[in-house]
Amino acid sequence: MYQNSSAATQRIADFLGMPVTPEIVQKVVANSSIDEMRAKASIGLNHLRKGGYGGWRTSFTVAMSEFFDDVYLHRMEGTGLKFNFGPNSHGVDVIM
Q1: Are 57 and 87 in contact (CB under 8 A)?
Q2: For the chain, what is the radius of gyration of the CA atoms?
Q3: Taking 90 as the threshold, does the pLDDT of residue 61 lie above it?
Q4: Cα 86–chain centre separation
Q5: Quick one: which of 65, 88, 89, 93 could link to 60 by a disulfide (CB 3.0–4.6 Å)?
Q6: What are the helix (H) ranges across the chain?
Q7: How far is Cα 92 from Cα 56, in angstroms, rounded to an integer?
Q8: Closest CA relative to residue 35, chosen from 51, 54, 56
Q9: Can you give the pTM of this predicted structure?
Q10: How far is the C-alpha of 1 from the C-alpha of 73, rounded, in Å?
Q11: Is 84 buried (19+), middle (13-18) or exposed (0-12) by CB count in 10 A?
Q12: 47 and 2 in one domain?
């Protein structure tokens, strides 16, 4: 989704059975950017972190991150889903 937001937005609309034009998809993508959400934050403070993906790994210890990876792999086994969880403690993207 992060690499191709327009295509992902279109897929979500298709899944929900919502007809959308390319212009609507473009507006959704533009208004969903981290910069746009920060600019329009309605609660009066910036509650959004850096945006993107994998930022949560910097808050985890190495042990917590490895534990999460093990639990995730066990629970998602056989689903065929793959996600990029961002860099691990060695700076290598974790794709599972």
Answers
A1: yes
A2: 17
A3: no
A4: 10
A5: 65
A6: 5-16, 22-31, 34-39, 62-76
A7: 15
A8: 51
A9: 0.47
A10: 20
A11: middle
A12: yes
Nearest to 62 by CA among 37, 89, 35: 89
Is the pLDDT confidence value at 68 over 90?
no
Q: Which of 25, 46, 44 is nearest to 35 (CA)?
A: 46
Amino acid 31 reads N
Range 14-34 average pLDDT: 90
**What is the tally of structural domains in the chain?**
2
Q: Check: CB of residue 25 under 8 Å from CB of residue 9.
A: yes
1 and 47 part of one domain: yes
Print the domain residue range for 10.
Answer: 1-52
DSSP state of 56: G
Among residues 6, 31, 32, 36, the alpha carbon closest in space to that of 21 is found at: 6
Say whether both 61 and 42 belong to one domain.
no
